Here is the input.
Amino acid sequence: MPSEIFTLKGESTGTDASGDFPLYSDLLYHDSAPYTPPTKVIIPFGMKAKIWAKRLAAEGETLFTISWAKDATAASPAWEVLDAEKLSSKGELWVEKRRPIVIRSLTGKEGFKASWSQPSTTPSKAYVELEVEITDEE
Amino acid sequence: MTVTDPYGLVLENEHLAVYIPATSSAFVFRVRSRINRGYERFHYGPLPIPAGIALPSYAGGSIPVPASGVMPGTAYIPVGSGLSFPLSGAFDETDMWYVPPEWRDRLFHVRAELTPRWLRVELEIPKGVAQRRFQRDKVTVGIEKAFGFSRGCVEAIHFPGIHYGYRVGNDTNLNVWTGVDFTYAEYVVEIPRDAELIFNVLTRRAPSLWMTMPVAVYDATIRDAFMEAYGIEGFPLYPANRRAEALRKYEELLGKVKV
Here is the structure.
């Protein structure tokens, strides 16, 4: 059964109090415009995305969220938060999940993204790493 | 009793039955030897997708390939542009799995595993001829449709005299670096000159590895390659209760076999 596990890494701007992480990986090509790093992942039709681990770090208070959308290909997807973690101050948090966050692609348009949100007066750097598996297994 | 090794490749002196759905016929080969014993795995590297070509998109329009070996998000390789795998020094340096019909004692058993594993993949046999169908010829399916493909892995026997095309599709939004790992056997084969044995293999009374080829369309190129390489188009299948008829037919065909 096909299965691919890869690491997605994102870094906030440090100047914006909120936003979606641009995502980098050894698998992803993003050397030059218009091939900029994606801020969302569309899941292959009929497969599932499993997020097995999260490594979060920030210079200050930060809310990390993972959201999904039924149609992430839309111009303005209707994102719903699936998972949230908050650092109340500078620090880091590792979350290894025995049971992963699962997002199914039933139409080929489902997708997910990772975002940060910080107090508007004190934006700072935030970092995220996600261990993601794309698979068709239960 | 197993006829294959842990790689799923046929052991020496065992039999391989290669079934062609389009003709309801099969070739039966005895593996006399395996040339690449001990080095069955070949990390080929990136898929040979050239930079700059435009690929059609699942979302409509086309997308240029930004760099060699990159599969753009939502892009797929169209019919007629299936990939071949170049190899310097090979008989055909543009297609490492191709050998001419006169190399009829050589047969490549190839399993291609793609990175990332979610890539859709299917074979054109011969190159330019899509083979996936639904309801006879009513619907053509494949990587650009909702079904009719596998993901991340495809396995086939490469017959002499036929160029195959590997079509790949990426139905995510991610532009991905690609890779392909081959597990293969270079078999030295012969067709056993024993109608009884062929009947037993094709009625599954004698052990063999049974490979069903994705050939729903019997293109003239395939027929010509079979005739030139082997002198026959395969052995038709018979039910177990028509043994005498089958043996007569197989004896007749064995008189024409070239390998």
